Amino acid sequence: MTQDSEKMVYDRQVPDTDTVYRSHKPSGASCLFAFLVSTALVLGCQSPLPPLPNPPGPHTAVRLSPGDVLRLSFAEESDLDQTQKIRRDGTISLPYLGQVTAAGRRVIDLQHELTRRYDEYLDNPEVLVTLENGSGTVIISGFATYPGKVTFDRPTTVYQAIMQAGGVTDYGSLSNIHLTRIIDGVQHTETINLRPNIRGKPTYPKYVQDGDVIYISRSLF
Length: 221
Hints:
The chain has helices spanning 3-13, 17-23, 28-45, 107-118, 158-164, 195-198; strands at 69-74, 82-85, 91-94, 98-101, 127-133, 135-142, 148-153, 172-183, 186-192, 213-218. It is of the alpha+beta class. Strand 1 (69-74) and strand 2 (82-85) form a beta hairpin.
């Protein structure tokens, strides 16, 4: 075999080195896939945010807020009986007393204050305060079917509030839901996993408070 023939055979068997180098370059799609996988691993390794302090329960005393409707019944002065809605500034207007701050207080605390203050004006100052309508509002954002404000009657769980917003979309994560609440002027957030609820497993419910924000994260898979 001549040298030229041998060179032709060698060229057919061994590909050009430039061609081999280019064939092993990663494509754009593979780079994107690697990035998504690494991101998922990083996020998956993050610890969930711890539970919020002093969580409300089904029997937690309700603290009044603007929009609540109160019924006031006087022991011996039925002509003073009335129903009032707490105004935006958190106050109500009462005979003899004028404006009284009601928002942020428990019903029993407000009742005790009114009884004490009416002692100056009435022979029998006893007054009964009851909550006629105590709805609250939360904001649900992220991957909810109908994000926005949701009005609820207390007590209501996080799961119930999300269901009022139409539930989680196909792109939302049931295991990565953030509940944000302002406590003593500081904003706190915890992570909630609702996947066991959907699967019918028994869980301890998380209750919402007026003014809470619920964010439904995007599912990575």
